[in-house]
Amino acid sequence: MSHPEPAGIDPRGPRFTAGITAVLLLVVAVLGFGGADLAAWLLLAGLAALFAWGAFAGVRRHPFGLLFKRFVRPRLAPPDELEDPRPPTFAQGVGFAVTVAGVLLGAIGLQLAVPVAASLAFVAAFLNAVFGYCLGCQLYLLLVRARVIPRT
After folding, report:
1. Range of the domain at 124
2. What is the pLDDT of residue 4?
3. Inside any domain, residue 3
4. pTM
5. Domain-embedded: residue 5
6. 150 domain-assigned
7. Predicted confidence band of residue 3 (pLDDT cuts 50, 70, 90)
8. DSSP state letter for 6
């Protein structure tokens, strides 16, 4: 007999995902600013696909989230509380928008757009991974308060 998934997610999962993402975005920025334009563009395109996965399939189905759920969470104590998955899912959408802009601008010849987009996304991922401060989540809450996004 299977049990339904809880309504919320372990808040450590998005931080774990942000840590991996931050490292990969830093690699993109270093490659891009270092002149390895194609390698940076390809890696950023892959990260944009991962952000799309998290934004459209939800953070519970994101590959890094599944890694956390399978290998990390069983070794941790249960979280004190669960969090709503909608803000981190929205944050994945913001990451997708930033990275896909860099990919598209890089594809039309603006090579500097790739490491700049990666750097912007890196800052957000770093803040989440290290300090637990999710910029995309804060943007989501601001839009909910402004009634741009419905509460339900």
Report:
1. 12-74+81-145
2. 45
3. no
4. 0.90
5. no
6. no
7. very low
8. P
